[in-house]
Description:
The chain is α+β, with helices and mostly antiparallel strands.
Amino acid sequence: MSARLFRVQRFAALFLTVLVTAFALLATSAVVAPDADAASKRKIRHAMKVAKNQIGDSYSYGSDGPNRFDCSGLFYFAFKKRSGVHVPRTAADQFRHARRIPKKNMRKGDLMFFDSGSGVYHMGMFVGRRDGKRVILHSPSTGQRVHRSKIWTNDWKAATLRRR
Length: 164
């Protein structure tokens, strides 16, 4: 056998190995990704349900439930403690943890972070629209309770815990 023929056969074998491996990886990701994405969506829907069940609970600075919450404590409770989704405890850390998205791409269960320019001071969960305005579920401040309200400012950022 000539050296040239041997090199061609070796190249063909290597090429075939790479091709088969690539197809195997594509087939695996096509099967795994939708299941993982579906699981992520289920967990976010569950967290949204948990958060909605807290409507009427009192605001309490630094609290993360089960009956009293500050803004980030509500979502720490709903996501991490009840839905198994890793999320840090404070609003600033949750903002750093979540993936930023354009406001136009928001879906129910995504997060809204309010930033004064010197840092995140409040957050809540997007739960839909009412009269053409976005509606947030949040635990706003001392003396108030967890509730839904229309967005009162445009100074906020959208983020998600959905898979990338």
